[in-house]
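Progress against Task 2.4 (sequence-to-structure conversion) is shown through the following example record, which the project officer requested during the mid-term review.
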Amino acid sequence: MSSGQLSQFLLFAVLAASGLGELSQVWGEVSAASGAAERIGELLKEEPKVKAPAAPVALGRVSGAIRFDHVGFTYPTRPHAPALRDVSFTIRPGERVALVGPSGAGKSTVFQLLERFYDPQAGAILLDELDVTRCDPVAVRLNLALVPQDVAIFADTVRENIRLARPQASDAEVEAAGRAALVDEFVTRMPGSWDTMVGERGVTLSGGQRQRIVIARAILRAAPILLLDEATSALDAESETLVQTALERSMEGRTTLVIAHRLATVLSADRILVMEDGRIVDEGTHGELVGKGGLYARLAALQFNAGA
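Structure tokens generated for the chain above:
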């Protein structure tokens, strides 16, 4: 074998080894994508737990009146532990009501039933005196805007992350909602402004910035009922102040039901519903409930540093 042939052999061997290495990497990516595609296929095949009735009652834009009438509910996975027990309350249009109680009291279940992820096994939930089980779940959800505790940000621009709430919204409407939620306070400093990519799960944003984007979605949705599950404990003082200001703006002119973790929200609520073990055990304003010296007074002293 000549030196030239040996050189060619070594060159081809290196190229072949490199190709095999790349093929191994590609095969790993294909395997991962195949697993993800299989999971997506499973999700697409899943039937919703709550389906529209055969002849749904028309539900347009509601005024915001909410009524729980002796509602009882137990999760299928916990058949011996009722999540709600004979819960009754009424919220007037435009009223701001806070749900307060220890973990497991049933606060999140109230939200899930309102959103029709489940239907109650006893009693009824009514919007403008219409039983929601007689309505199309999509029509019910169009009347709701949710600011969740765990925010979801996608690998897209700030603008498109806000527009998710109302895909047909114009750029001007998206930016107006962003300004109302104080998103412009940080987005104007970004190189691409509203069209800046934020990375997977909003990795380039702070916790407060992600929350303000989600609040902007709720404002853009312009639904008559706002469901708010506060999450501000991990924020610094400045971010917490900005988020609170954005939240106050999102509540304007809407019926608001909030799972409250902050003294400021509780103090500004028109009414507080105190929950324990799936029941409403008390209700009133902050001052009234602290004066009663019950569960709320203890929670206020421990969690809100008030009432002591």
